[in-house]
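TODO from last week: model GerMN domain-containing protein.
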Amino acid sequence: MKRILSIITATALFGFLIYAVTFQKKEIPVQKPGEVISTAAYARYFGAVPPVDKGVAYAFVIYFPSRKEPGKVVPFPFFTFDEGSIKKVAVERLLVGMDTGSYQGDFLNAPAGSRIVGLQEAQGTTTLTLSKEFGTTSDASKFVKAFDQTLRQFKGVSAVGVRIDGNAAPLPVQSSESDILQPGPPRLLGVTAMKDKGVKEVEEVDAFFDRPVDVKELKLMAHDGQQYEGDLYHSAFDMAGVLKPRNRSQFTERMPIKVRWKVVDKLGRQAEGNDVVSLEVKVH
């Protein structure tokens, strides 16, 4: 069973059903498989798109400014079903940052309160206007590189302008392919248990990764090394291994979970680990 989960976008990732056209005789309509359309940047850094059960999804890249290698940006894969708002979603997510899981401390954070004031397009140029809070950062030039690389991957965007609300002069935009760091091996982001509102026991336990992966091995274990039993699945977009536990009452907020994992991404980059993480419980 696949669930449509969103870990790194604010857009709800629920598609719609598309049915095949039937001919003269009466038949039960057949549900067409879903489709994922990717930008060239996504294909370059993350390979073939993963499958989706239904609807039309869009795969793209957000470039986060590196703290460890100043002036460089790091690509991350993201997905949405809303093509119309894809640029806004990308910039908003970039402003939120990627200070999570094994990536804590790896990237620069935008000043608190930074937000989009405007996003205009004219004759191939996309102009991004940010709130005054963004103007307080000394790392503006590093973020501008991230905005430029992120927005120029989209169809019809040949140039990017960045302004701060209330300032007449635009920020200088200077970025190139040499500013982009190649993604390293896949990483485990964390483990989250999902449950329905008003229900005490969790429904599933998800081990999230930073990109679509093929899970070669995934074991979730208690502190004594005892493996939790249940059925294992892939999530939507192959971003997580999903355990449907047989004993749902075992899982509580902040309990330590031992994770033994081995995965490979769509470009053949392999990684494995034995990690102990704190379980996060979310209600959906």
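Done. The first helix runs from residue 40 to 46.
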